[in-house]
């Protein structure tokens, strides 16, 4: 985890639309997708940041979570 990372202040809220996803929120930040590779938008690799301002050439987004049917994922590499 990078230095100065925010690890508190996040919450989840269920939406009854779109298959009842649970949105991940931060009261102090928005979610940003920042490209780290070249190419067309759907071909790029992105890093996700929670920040109160656009950290650069990034796209604002929402994060939806779902309850897994089997097994649990706790980290992506």
Task: Offer a concise description of the structure.
The chain is mainly β and 77 residues long.
What's the total number of strands? 6
Count helical runs: 0
| Molecular shape | globular
> Fraction of residues in helices?
under 10%
Average per-residue pLDDT, rounded, comes to: 78
Architecture overview:
The chain is 0% helix and 36% strand. By secondary structure, it is an all-beta fold. The protein has one domain. The chain has a three-stranded antiparallel beta sheet, with no helix packed on it. It has a three-stranded antiparallel beta sheet with strand order 4-3-5, with no helix packed on it.
Structural topology:
Blueprint (H helix, E strand, L loop, with lengths): L9 E5 L7 E5 L3 E6 L10 E6 L7 E3 L1 E3 L12
Antiparallel strand pairs: 1-2, 2-6, 3-4, 3-5
Descriptive key words:
77 residues, mainly beta, three-stranded antiparallel sheet, 6 strands, 0% helix
């Amino acid at each position: 985890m990078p230095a100065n990372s925010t690890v508190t202040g996040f919450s989840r809220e269920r939406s009854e639309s779109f298959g009842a996803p649970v949105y991940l929120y931060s009261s102090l930040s928005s979610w940003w997708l920042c490209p780290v590779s070249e190419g067309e938008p759907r071909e790029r690799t992105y890093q996700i940041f929670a920040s109160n301002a656009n950290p650069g050439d990034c796209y604002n987004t929402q994060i939806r979570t779902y309850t897994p049917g089997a097994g649990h994922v706790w980290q992506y590499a």
